[in-house]
């Protein structure tokens, strides 16, 4: 792993430490791509019907978790793009619960949600691959916290890993 791609202290909000530390020093682009197949396998086991059900009262369904992962990939990718291009304004946060509510993911066929996750993930990996190495250390503000391009790359990967673990432990 290229040491220049590993985020350093102060490049992200403390909230993200768990996501980053769970994968620090690993081949992040390879993990991002391997997560596509891992997500597909989890949802193959769950099936369409079970994917519409939460594991507990007040929790998201598995399809809502998948929609949330895709939304988060896109939002974080946008943040990374802005910061890579030198954006100086603070990028907004988002209310994940409201996004899930408005996404109406349980009304979308599972195969469409899986395809959307896969396509957005390929676009994300392509974008990161084509960034000049020099921009990975760029730091901007996202939701009023510092965020480097390389930290965002780790956050996206760790966030998906976090939700995959929950899907496996609580939904299967």
Automatic annotation (TrEMBL):
- In its UniProt entry, the species of origin is given as Shivajiella indica
Q: What is this protein called?
A: DinB family protein
Classification via Gene3D superfamilies: dinb family like domain (1.20.120.450)
The record's section on SUPFAM superfamilies has: DinB/YfiT-like putative metalloenzymes
One of this protein's Pfam families, by short name? Answer: DinB_2
The lineage is: Bacteria, Pseudomonadati, Bacteroidota, Cytophagia, Cytophagales
Q: Where is the DinB-like domain?
A: 37-166
